[in-house]
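Record 1 of the preview.
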Amino acid sequence: MKTIAALQALVTAASLDGEPSDAELDAIELEMPVIRAEVELLDAQIMTLDRIPTELDQRRIRRARRKVLAARRELANRSAGTATAGDAA
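->
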């Protein structure tokens, strides 16, 4: 019986079990408002999975969608402002 072995080197990085870098933590912190808004939207949608949404449920979902859009807009504007300031330097 022949043994099967990989013919190519490993694709993954060698140190996957390390801690996130400071830059990665900063990026996560920057995106945290978007993450929270998306979780809130998901919670509102999950609550209506097993029943017909009431008017209050519909308002909650609309409000959560608006929060997601506002958080994404804020993140995009912040990122665009950073890129513009970096280009000017």
